Amino acid sequence: MSIWYFLSVWLHVILAAFWIGGMLFLPLVILPGIRNHPDRIRILYDTGIRFRFFGWIVLAGLLVTGLLNARLRGFTLNADFFSVSNYGRLVAWKIGIFTLILLLSGAHDWVFGNKALEEMQEAADQRLRLMARWSGRINLLLGCMMAFLGLLLSRGGQLPG
How confident is the model over 91-96, as a mean pLDDT? Predict the structure, then answer.
């Protein structure tokens, strides 16, 4: 394996840690810390906007390093690769889950999240706030699934059994 492969994997792990860590930091640290703060909505909005900016950069980096990792390991991403081996099937699962993460992140960032903050200001119906909360939780779960699949791939792509 080349040094480029190890650097790409290292960057992939750092980016994944940022992504999952950020999703844990917001509900476990920020939200409880500002629960009774008079500017709670503004702080939540500013924090969300800042994380959204870096989050999409991280997602792009994860896509690039993920594809680069496969290429540097000598894999050709074609139908045979995805259907013949456990390793290929796990990579296919990662790509599918990553696609779900992208779709859910887009909905969370540009639909549910912004409108949920508006609802908080107006004390309106809380449906979008609930959708924003659950879309974030589901994304965290999907991110943890991706990390587990990455661990399996780093161990040769064998499912535990």
Answer: 94
Direct distance between the N- and C-terminal alpha carbons of the chain, in angstroms, rounded to an integer: 28
- pLDDT at residue 124 is higher than 80: no
Number of domains forming the structure of the chain: 1
Residue 160 resides in a domain: no
For residues 135 and 63, is the Cβ–Cβ distance under 8 A?
no
pTM, whole model, 2 decimals?
A: 0.85
Q: 83: which residues sit within 8 A by CB, 6+ positions away?
A: 89
Q: Do the beta carbons of residue 73 and residue 66 sit within 8 Å? A: no
The reply to whether 161 falls in a domain is no
Band the pLDDT of 121: cuts 50, 70, 90.
low
| C-alpha distance from residue 116 to each of 43, 57, 106, 112 (Å) | 14, 23, 14, 6
Q: Which of 130, 126, 136, 61 is nearest to 106 (CA)?
A: 136
pLDDT at residue 7 greater than cutoff 60: yes
